[in-house]
Design brief:
single chain, 241 residues, alpha+beta, 2 domains, two-stranded antiparallel sheet, 7 helices, 10 strands
């Protein structure tokens, strides 16, 4: 399949929400990111920012981060990736961790990380601490894979939560009332800010990790299980195909 460098297929599948998208100088933003984080931005992502922009797409299914000049209500890409809470679960992008450039309505983080000369696209699901590899590279993700609704999050689930909780304000998340790491079910949600959601999800994970690390008294059963202790390595990434 020929890759769509114009991103017309993306825009058809995820149309911009009027008034909630902004143009982005992808070249200048890529240079700022490299200066700040010491990691190159894939050319495909720079081109995507130039031709598509940032903001809310697909009725809120995807939010693409922009720079501070965009003035969007959601996370700004440099400050978001600079947030200290990421270091609880990931190395810095320069040291092999991911760099996030978007999110879903459920707060799943869309990003890339370099493996040699290839920028691998991945989706980090903050509520379960799962990581999924989304394609061979960022070029394939943006030009070939994100060409139909529901690729990153279930469209029916999104519609159900929109009815249950109301429309999602730009840049915010639908969040489970009880973390899946603590046995929460997929039936009760609320809306909160991106920052509050991610910080709480990481705190929940740290609590589960601490409990799993404690010795289990004889006769008390098994310790709860969660993600492996420490930063999430690339070896945990699974294909979502």
């Amino acid at each position: 399949m020929k890759r769509d460098a114009s991103f017309r297929s993306f825009l058809a599948a995820y149309p911009p929400v009027p008034g909630l998208t902004r143009p982005v100088d992808g070249i200048s933003l890529g240079e700022a990111i490299e200066e700040q984080f010491g990691v190159a931005v894939p050319a495909a992502l720079q081109l995507f920012w130039l031709r598509v922009g940032a903001g809310v797409f697909g009725g809120g299914e995807i939010y693409i981060f922009g720079d501070a000049a965009c003035g969007l209500p959601g996370p700004e890409v440099i400050s978001w990736n600079s947030a200290p809470w990421w270091r609880s679960v990931y190395s810095t992008p320069k040291d092999g961790g991911p760099f996030f450039f978007g999110q879903t309505a459920f707060g799943d983080q869309l990003g890339f990380r370099w493996q040699g000369t290839i920028a691998l696209p991945e989706l980090f699901m903050v509520d379960t601490m799962e990581v999924f590899l989304l394609g061979r590279d960022v070029d394939e993700l943006l030009g070939e894979l994100l060409v139909a609704p529901g690729v990153l999050c279930d469209s029916e689930r999104l519609a159900r939560l929109s009815r249950q909780c109301g429309p999602l304000p730009p840049g915010q998340h639908y969040v489970p009332d009880i973390s899946p790491l603590r046995g929460g079910a997929d039936d009760s949600f609320h809306i909160t800010s991106a920052e509050a959601h991610v910080k709480k999800a990481i705190t929940e994970w740290e609590v589960v990790q601490a409990a799993a690390a404690r010795p289990v008294p004889s006769g008390s059963g098994s310790a709860p299980t969660g993600a492996e202790p420490g930063a999430l390595p690339l070896s945990r990434v699974r294909s979502r195909a």
